[in-house]
Amino acid sequence: MEKIIVAAKSDNNVIGRNGDVPWHLPADLAFFEHTISDGWLLSGRRSYESAQGDFIFQKGRKTIIITRQKRL
Ligand SMILES: NC(=O)c1ccc[n+]([C@@H]2O[C@H](COP(=O)([O-])OP(=O)(O)OC[C@H]3O[C@@H](n4cnc5c(N)ncnc54)[C@H](OP(=O)(O)O)[C@@H]3O)[C@@H](O)[C@H]2O)c1
Fold it and tell me: Which atom of ligand 1 is found nearest the CA of 15?
């Protein structure tokens, strides 16, 4: 099984701010979409609940969300 790590980062290594990604770059999102198109997406619970989560975790995407909570 191939495993791919995708991270969008700024030149000074920022990947998030206040629970969201502090930029909106359609080309980045298109690259992300293309890269994970047929695979499973593994993510932490906070990213799932972030503002961009609605786009990233679209209905129908094969997704695994990790949490220590017994019930979400
Ligand atoms: N630039 C990018 O490529 C990119 C990508 C994704 C996210 N982000 C940004 O990153 C930020 C979110 O990152 P984050 O680190 O705060 O949150 P996160 O990694 O999305 O989620 C953290 C949560 O995951 C669960 N978790 C983590 N390790 C676990 C383990 N070993 N076992 C079970 N559950 C575990 C816990 O959920 P519970 O609290 O429910 O137990 C933890 O609170 C946001 O700003 C988001 O926009 C950026």
Answer: 1
Give the Å distance between the CA of 49 and the centre of ligand 1: 9
Q: Report pLDDT for 64.
A: 94
pLDDT tens across 9-24, in order? 999 999 999 988 999 9
Report CA 20 to chain centroid distance, whole Å.
Answer: 10
Asked if 15 contacts 7 with a C-beta cutoff of 8 angstroms, the reply is yes
d(CA 72, CA 65): 10
On whether the pTM is more than 0.85, the answer is: yes
